[in-house]
Amino acid sequence: MPEQQANDSAPWWDDRHRPRTSDVRNALEECSRQVAAWGLALPAIDPVVVDFGLGDFRRRGLIQYTVANEVAAGYCGKLLFVSDGQTCPAHRHAVKHETFFVMRGQVVMNIADQTRTLSPGKTLTVPTGVTHSFTGCGNALLLEVSMPSTAGDNCFLDLRIGDRGVV
User: Fold this and answer.
1) In sequence order, what are the residues at sequence separation of 6 or more whose Cβ sits closer than 8 angstroms to the Cβ of residue 98?
2) Which of 35, 83, 29, 78 minimizes the C-alpha distance to 59?
3) 99-115 pLDDT, tens per residue?
4) How many folded domains does the chain comprise?
5) Strand order in 132-136's β-sheet?
6) How confident is the model at residue 21 (pLDDT cuts 50, 70, 90)?
7) Most buried of 79, 81, 83, 109 (most Cβ within 10 A)?
8) Domain span holding position 134
9) What is the rounded distance in angstroms from the CA atom of residue 18 to the CA atom of residue 155?
10) pLDDT tens, residue by residue, 22-68
11) In a domain, 147, yes or no
12) Is residue 10 part of a domain?
């Protein structure tokens, strides 16, 4: 069976949301080294490196490998890599319901004004409409299993992201 290429789950992450080329190269090298040290493999797909248009990838950003984003079938699976101290900013989804599984490392998840530290093997489900963010405590790799990612469903508290917070 031929290898399938995952659907691009983030066509709306345009150049405004991506860091400088040198930052992208360094981030991908760091991610690859760390994942190899963990003894894991990444899918053979192009990742999306995002700084959310804030220009500070080391503090606010992530690397996203979309394994599947099957809108018609109703599911999405992604690997998300964050570095030590790097945060995916607070946001909610208008439609998407998602579950995070920590594969390696540790993250602090902020969800609905509660803070939880998750280590490998732990999961956290985020219902539709609930504000959440996460930060790496050291490098971390998460699996996101969710409803499909669609344009306009990400509503960030920081209105500098996207179109007045909507991506």
Assistant:
1) 125, 126, 144, 145, 146, 147
2) 83
3) 999 999 999 999 998 99
4) 1
5) 114-118, 107-111, 132-136, 87-93, 154-156
6) confident
7) 81
8) 15-156
9) 18
10) 788 999 999 999 999 999 999 999 999 999 999 999 999 999 999 99
11) yes
12) no
Rg value, the chain, Cα:
15
The verdict on residue 1 lying in a domain is: no
- Reduced to 3 states (helix: H, G, I; strand: E, B; else coil), residue 34 is helix
**The dihedral formed by the CA atoms of 68, 70, 74 and 75, expressed in degrees to the nearest 10:** 0
CATH of the domain at 82: 2.60.120.10
C-alpha distances (whole Å) from 100 to each of 20, 55, 111, 126 are 28, 26, 12, 8
The answer as to whether 84 is a domain residue is yes
